[in-house]
Amino acid sequence: MNFHIMTLFPEMIEHSLSTSILGRAMMKGLISFEAINIRDYSNDDKHHKVDDYTYGGGAGMLMQAQPIYDCYNAIIEKINQTRNEVVAENGENGLGGLPGAKRPRVVYVTPQGAVFNQQMAADFAKEEDLIFLCGHYEGVDERVLEEVVTDYVSIGDYVLTGGELPAMVMIDAISRLVPGVLNNDESAMTESFNNNLLEYPQYSRPEEWMGKKVPAILLSGDHKKVDEWRLEQSIIRTKERRPDLYEKWLAENPPKPEKKKRKRKKANPESISTADDTDNND
Ligand code: SAH
Fold it and tell me: How much distance in Å is there from the Cα of 183 to the middle of ligand 1?
């Protein structure tokens, strides 16, 4: 999967994305990042200007349409070129600029977008190429947004100085869902937000730390019981910390009335007994 990031601060992106898990994924050829400097596409040869005052007045500067549009076209051209090379080599179907072909999605990161979540990350992870546009200053001239953007996405209800951090947040979340990026693909399946539940509490060595013991059930070797305990903890935790998610989960998993077995589970739906679970008290 290839990420193309249009930005005024490419070094911000490049430094951050080339470390740790994403850096390794890049080395393995599973993902690639290219941060493209919008300033390089300014028509202003002297000062490489990319912003100007807003019509109608108001504070601050706005990123102009032309440099972004030219930058975008250069990216599309490059993607098409790469795809055509692949076609020439493998005889596969080319995409991009070819007739009837699919254009890559273009995400404008903006506080005015839909709020990013795990589902969106999974959806974006299916793309082969994904283009991000990072705004700065007061934002971007509306006309170029209309022309190129397919998705308006926010990272939350607050305003940042630029789109680089939001783009990196999204790229990080998307990348780790690309097959092979995480060492153990299973971990993406059991994680928070899968099925609208937060992940259960986890423990590593030692068995006892500061007088706190690892819940006995996790040492029992009984995988079925461990799974049950984890699901129960996930539910309790989600109910406590994210009642909004819990409601969604509940809607999809309505309680089964005739289930006698619930007695065990009744242990303590309200109170959390994470650290010293001594199996479910009856
Ligand atoms: N004047 C704009 C905010 C501009 S902030 C408004 O009121 O909507 C400058 C840039 O930072 C934006 O163009 C956007 O790319 C980025 N940005 C700021 N907050 C963001 C958020 N919560 N999510 C995603 N991008 C954000």
Answer: 34
